[in-house]
Amino acid sequence: MAMQGNTSPCIEEVAKDGYDSNKFDDDGHPKRKGTWITASGHILTAVIGSGVLSLAWAIAQLGWIAGPIVLMLFSLITLYTSFLLTDCYRSPDPVHGTRNHTYRNMVKNILGGTQHHYCGLAQYINLIGASIGYTITAATSMVAIQRSNCYHKNGHDAVCTMPNYPYMIMFGIIEIILSQIPDFHELSWLSALAAIMSFGYATIGIGLSIAKVAGGSHARTSLTGVTIGVDVTSSEKLWNTFTALGNIAFAYSFSSVIVEIQDTLKSGKPENQVMKVAASTSVAVTTVFYMLCGMIGYAAFGNDAPGNFLTGFGFYEPFWLIDIGNIFIVVHLVGAYQVYTQPVFLLVENWCKERWPESSFMAKEHHIKIPLVGTYRMNPFRLIWRTLYVILSAVIAILLPFFNSIVGLLGALAFWPLTVYFPTKMYMVQSKVPKFSMRWTGLKLLSVFCLLISIVAAAGSIEGIIKELKVYKPF
């Protein structure tokens, strides 16, 4: 969720006084400067996120055999379909065709019809869901900081339970303030900070897991994961396995931003070839990182692995390091929330401006001078709409604060359409893959297989939400 999307869109500037190849690219945009190294960095920033926190739990549901196999399978599928997307960046020819600047634009130009609307729907469901999931995760980490200090002061057997909804409200207030920043590109500093934090807390989690294993931890593990009749019932084992698939899918979800990342590459070498190098490098690094988090986390916690390995208190000491890890999570999610919600804000605001162009309520901005900050551009509609959105996402998070089930559902909803269906469909159309050929059949089978994975992952996550709702009391 992965934090999925820590990249800011380019500010488009088009040559006005003729085409200058020294300053502008073939589409009139300023010369792009990206390389495979910068593109790899963007992908790593997008993919290494809060999804890593659930991997130890996911491996515990699958075991030593299926766990690494499923992680590797998702890695290979994501890499392969990202290759297909890179070949569609230019259309109708992957080397000399016209650039597609966004994922949705690519779907519109290659598939035509109304398919780009379905692509947009999938993208925005993912973005809206992420804002809810990030609210839950941030509040869980805030509670974990308070509980960590409580356990350190009163002992590991102390009763240190506390509600998380006050922290969701606190997180929402912070996001209401940050949401009033008018333009997406003004958040580049926040995105960079979020990326540093995500690597920080994931590294702390790995380090603590290694220390626990090295310290003689004898956690109970097995080849098949949690044991039926000991840890779970047979039905719980099945549903948890499905939810684990969604958690792993969420961790690998970065397809929705790969087109925008490719659009930053400088001209010269074919962009699709450069992007394939970047994708291979970043997915390889991500897979190693995820294997460490998942496998070492499972070795440390065993079948009792918590849903979130930094907030589930498999670790108690050093409490200050656990606090730092959770602070990193909160800071990361403060930034990630904005990266994911700004496109939603802009979609509604731009539509309203087009629908009511003469409305001063929609378009007029009031300039307010704030000491030590500068001039703030306040628009009444933006203030009300963004505030209501943050409040609504916080209310839903309070009503459904189930980390693993929500993460699994988000992963299931985004994985098939954005990572598999559209990439394979566009590639077959652009490359004119003959019907019923071996490649056509293989791509169709891959799409059907991944659709089935998404369906069972969504079913497992929904079952988990329903089960937890039966015993959950929000206040």
TrEMBL record:
Presence of keyword Transmembrane: yes
InterPro entries in the record: AA_transpt_TM
Ranges of residues in domain Amino acid transporter transmembrane: 32-466
Domain of life: Eukaryota
Regions that span the bilayer: 36-57, 64-85, 124-145, 165-181, 187-211, 277-299, 319-340, 383-400, 406-424, 445-466
Pfam families: Aa_trans
Family: Belongs to the amino acid/polyamine transporter 2 family. Amino acid/auxin permease (AAAP) (TC 2.A.18.1) subfamily.
Name the UniProt record assigns to this protein: Amino acid permease 6
